Input
Amino acid sequence: NLNVMPASNGKGVITGEVFAVDGSRIADAEVSLRRMYSDFLAGSKRIDEPAITAQTDASGQFVVKGATFGIYVVSVRSGDTTGAASVLIDPPRPTNHVVVLLREGALALAGTVVDSANAPISSARVMLVIHDGDDLRGDMRAFWEVETDSVGAFSFDNLEPGNWQAYVTADGYAPLLTDEMKAGDTGVRIVLTQGGSAGGSAVWAENNAPAAGLILRARFKGISRTEPVTATVEPSGRFIFERLIPGEHEILPEDKTLVPADNAIRVEVVEGKPITDLQVRIAKGGIVRGRVF
Output
């Protein structure tokens, strides 16, 4: 019989299997499921609620019924071996299955987030996004994210060996894509700053009139799936993006029916060196129709 745990008054069901690296099933493993996000859409609400606990049966399986829709982190431990995975429960997939592989030698990564004066930054979000040069899938990032405590400290457990990079955000600071951090390092220091800025003027290509009220977005090109920074064009046509992460950004209209009239607008943002002379000409986008054979 499977170990069935009631989770809440939700409608989802999470089933799982736990294996050792040799393929054998692990009985009596401790399973923790924590809902991290309300859904998988960009801008979904981050959740802070108690974990659901379960235990695998003799065949290495577990079931959690009544799960509220969202993205769950599934963490499993048995003796000195650990493993983790993520699973999405939503209306199209009210029942989902996850397989967790346990291994020895998992490593920790820990440190602090501070400002340029070395003061700790609490409630900063630290999300692991790159491992050994490979961009992690969005669903994998759901459980490689933590928040700093009152002294700016953060920690990750159960990491694979290798080099990791994190995307770090905090209110009042520019986001940061960190340098590589080696799994096993527990003395990492991440410094957030005010970042760089980029501004200029935006006009309509057809008449060179200020594109007043237009919303522009600056998307960082160093990593996929990061939230863009937005700026609204003033009546004079001026705009400015502040607290940009250093690196290359692409500037586009928020309205997808509009496009830059000239080439794609890319700008290299440098810490402490404001850019003030960007010229953006905006036009209506066209539609291309065709047939594929």
Observations:
- The radius of gyration is 23 Å.
- Residues 1-9, 40-44 have pLDDT under 50 and may be disordered.
- The first strand starts at residue 3 and ends at 6.
- The CA atoms of residues 124 and 261 lie 38 Å apart.
